Amino acid sequence: MPATSPMYDQLRHGTLRNRALAWFADHSYRRAAAGGALFALEINVVIFLVGELDRLLPGPDLEPALSLSNRLLVGVFSVILLALLRCLATASARGLLRLYLRARTT
Fold it and tell me: Phi/psi of residue 61, each to 5°?
């Protein structure tokens, strides 16, 4: 079996390092938190609109209506929760990539 020459081995590690640095730059915690918060806001807007449409449609009212302050409180809590969950997922992915890079480059 032919062995990889040291010159190409260094190039391979450099390419892997450049790809990893680009991935880390693309998957930052700030971007993850912003994406999670945006997703939570989108969900809350859809839930709010469905709730408003539900009031317009005739039928039995099985659940008590939430007040606006309760909806805002639930919205703020969900934004914070999803931003934290997205940061946790990003931290896990970054840790796994670091382990992979250490195993691959040593």
Answer: -95, 100
Instruction: Report the amino acid identity of residue 32.
Output: A
The answer to pTM > 0.85 is: no
Cβ 83 vs Cβ 75: under 8 Å? no
**Residue (of 74, 72, 83) closest to 35 by Cα position:** 83
Asked if 52 and 87 touch (Cβ cutoff 8 Å), the reply is: no
Helix axes of 68-105 and 29-56: crossing angle, nearest 10 degrees: 150
Predicted confidence (pLDDT) at residue 85 exceeds the cutoff of 70: yes
Find the helix or strand (DSSP H, E) in which 27 lies: none
